[in-house]
Structure formats: C-alpha cells, structure tokens
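User: I'm putting together a teaching handout on how multi-component assemblies are represented. Below are the sequence lines for each component of a complex, exactly as they appear in our records. Could you produce the 3D structure of the whole assembly as structure tokens, so the students can see both representations side by side? Please keep the chain order the same as the input.
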Amino acid sequence: MAEYNRPLPLPTPETQHFWAGCREGELRLQRCTSCKQSYFPPRPFCPACSSREVEVYKASGKATLYSYIINHRPRPDFGDKPHSIAVVELAEGPRMMTNIVGCPQTPEALVLDMPLEVTFEKANDEISLPKFRPAKG
Amino acid sequence: MKQKTVAVVGAAETTEMGKIPNTSQLMLHADAALNAMRDAGLTAKDIDGIATAGDSPVEVAHYLGITPTWVDGTSVGGCSFMLHVRHAAAAINEGLCNTVLITHAESGRSRVGARRFSRDPASQQGQFEVPYGITNPPTMFTIPALRYMKQYGVTEEDIANVAVVQREWAAMNPRASFRDPITVDDVLNSKMIAWPFRLLMCCLVTDGGGALILTSAERAKDFPQKPVYILGTGESCETPMISQMADFTTSKAFRVSGKKAFDEAGIKHADVDHLMIYDAFAHLPVYGLEDLGFCERGEGAAFIREGNTRPGGTLPLNTNGGGLSYMHSGMYGMYALQESVRQMRGIAPAQVPGAKISIAHGVGGMFAASGTIVFSNEAP
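Assistant: Of course. Below is the structure of the complete assembly, with chains in the same order as your input.
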C-alpha cells in the first residue's frame, strides 16, 4: 500500500476507543445510560443531559446520505478527480462527516437519503478512517 | 432619550480595498482605525476600550498607542465584530470604559503579515472532519445547502440568483470589487468549486479592514458625525464543526441571536428598512432571511427571486454588494456593520431613501456563531 499522505487524526484520551474501534473494523458510538441518547463525536459525558454515566457500543454501521458537496478544488492527496465530502446520518441518530466511496462521485450517483454502510480505510497501523459506500441489497 | 443607549460616532474602512500588497495586516488595522478616529475627531489618547478578532487586541492597542481600561478579544469568526459591539455597549453602560475602538483587518489576498492558518490534528475538527478533505470555507460552509434544497425544493438557479441580485447593488457602489451585471447562467457557468457551488456563489478574497468607534448616546451628540444608535443586539454560537450543525436547513445561532436583538430593540420586522446578512456564500442570505424571521421556512429563495431584496424592493439587502461582490477579506462582519452605519448616516453609495432602522447580521465560522445588531438614526 502506498504511503498515506492525507491529514490524519491524532486521537486524544477521550477519543481513543473510537479510533481503536475503527482499527478493529468496528464503528463505536457512545450513549448515555441515563437518558439513552446516542451521540458523536466521542466525549466521556452526555451532551444532552450532562451525565457522566455513558457507555461505548458497537453501532450498526448503517447510515443514510444527509448532505454533501463534490469538491472540485485541487487536493492532489485525494487524487486528480473531484471527490465527495459528505455528512451521513447513522441509523442510531448521530451524524458524521465522511467520504462516500465505491460509487461514481457524481450528483446522479450520490442521491440524498440513499442507504449506506460503513467501510474502513486503513491509513497506517494506528488509524483507519470510517468511510461509507452504497449499501448492498 | 432612553437611558443606557450607545451610539457609533466613528466608522471607516481602510483607505484602499481589494488588493493591497504594500501593507501588512497590522497596518491595515491601524489604517482603518486612524480613518475612524479622524471621522470621530479623536486620537488614540481618547480611546479607552479596544476590541478586535483574529489578531490580538493587545497588539492593535500597542501599535496605535492606546491604553485601554477594557479589552475584548472575542474571536468567533467573521461575526466577532457584532459581538464586540454588543459587549462594548454593555461595557460603556457599566462604566468600564467610555470610548471603544473595534478594528478588523485582514491581508486575506496578499497575505502580508497575515496569520498562518492550521488545524490541530487532535482538535475535534482535526479528528472528525479534516481527514475527509475539507480545506477552507468552500468545502465546509457549502455542505448543508443540498439538504436545504431538497427539503424545500430550492434549485441551483435559485441560489445563483442571490449572487445576481447582489451584483445589482454592487453596480451602484464605486468601491465594489465586481460591478458588471451577471445572469443566472453566468453564475451557473462559472468555475465549479464544490458542487453545487460555482465560483460566483462564493465570496471574494481581498485585503482590507474597517473600524468602529462607540460611546454613550449622551456623549455622541457632541461628535462631528450624525450618531447611529444601537437599539438591540444579539449573539450566540452552535458548533465548531459543520457536520454537527443540528439541522442543516436552519441555523440555531442565527435564530437565537436574531431573536435577542429584535426583543431588545422592541421592533417588528415591518419596522426594518435595511438589512445586511453576511453572505460568505450565496445560500447564507436565504438562511438569514428565514432564521431572522423575515420569511417563513423554505421561502427565503422565493422572497429574493420575487425582487423584494433588490434595488427598489421592499427589503433592501446587502446594499454594498455583499461578500459576493463588494469585498471579503476573511471576516466580513465588519463590512456589514460599516454599510449599516453608512445607510443610517444617509451616505451609502446605494442609499435607501429615508431608512431609519438597519440590521447587520453576521455569521462566524461555518454556521458556528452569530451576532446581530439593530441600528437606528433616531435616538430611542
């Protein structure tokens, strides 16, 4: 695999579990054990009710396409063709930024609300990035 | 006169605007400040409050020779100057200082002595957005638009039309960067930046700055310029990450800030003669019209298409040409405030006849923060 030359995240103590999950091929979310709210990005307390009683769980990896752009500005590290920068809505509720992969990067192929599933793109031994592709079946 | 009213007594932009390769960013602050002080008939010795964003208020105060008793470095993006106005009004009313200078400057295009922009890979945005290829505002601020367009059946032509109407205003402004008329087709055929956004739907990148001087309305009567009174103010913030905006079709920060300002001013929408909505991109005025309550949700684009905001319309909007056609050095909120002040003084290039109430509404970051100021040329 060619050396990964894109910007990469630097995990903090509060986000380690998320990036460890990605490394192991799991999308991990957190949810509040008091108010049951799922949330993202990771933090060791509930942003809805301020409780510190939260748990990490494995998300389904299913999502729908909430909104996106197709970037035409030069990003040589992303190749020489326009690419999507998207926000997906996870089946569990929270939204996250990602790229839609495994399909043409065109308005015709990228339709809002289309079903998606997570796939992990390995950058190095530490970091794998969660990306989303059209759901199979 | 209502107790505890504050007024703008000095207002000016940098001497030049657009491309200023022979001047550093710090000197652009000073140039705008010196112009505003001349406008108010003051020198640095008369200023006892200082506020700026992006750069340090300490640096600006020292460079100008100001010894303040009140310092505000609130830096929440391009609307920071609306927040400074709000904070300054409170500070003046509380007696913390008497005469506040607010400056903005950015060598946005020439990058002479400009801040370097970098994101920490351990920040929330560095971890959860930057790895997906976002770089600058055109790859972030634009992301919510498609959801809005689907929700309300708004077309690319509708968004393009926002830029067309603002160019009509710019045509009347000798200082505007772009003044030639454009059509919806021109906008849609301009260079693709981040689909569905084309170049002419994105703000300019220029050099420039502006400065405001505020004092109590009581003292304002003794200044050379016609005072512009502050009737109401609002501010709020939502999220540092566009992906975490609660609803991509409406800005919570806009709604909260706008309502605060309207409530404080005690005005109705029908009272507003002139409106500035920070237009970093062409969808911003649509969100602003709706979130400030001038239109129902989903009706902002039609409101513009029907001609309400163009010259001669019922609600003149972005009368300097806006960030899309006038200028945008990086933190445009200052220029929206400057145009509101010009309109209230009655000296704007595209003057709205008889305008008595003007609102300047700003955005900071990518729908991250917001500030709203209600001005009037009549003492409350």
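A couple of points students might notice: The first strand of chain B starts at residue 6 and ends at 13. The interface with chain A takes residues 120-122, 124, 126-135, 138-139, 142-147, 150, 191-197, 241-244, 248 of chain B (CB under 8 Å).
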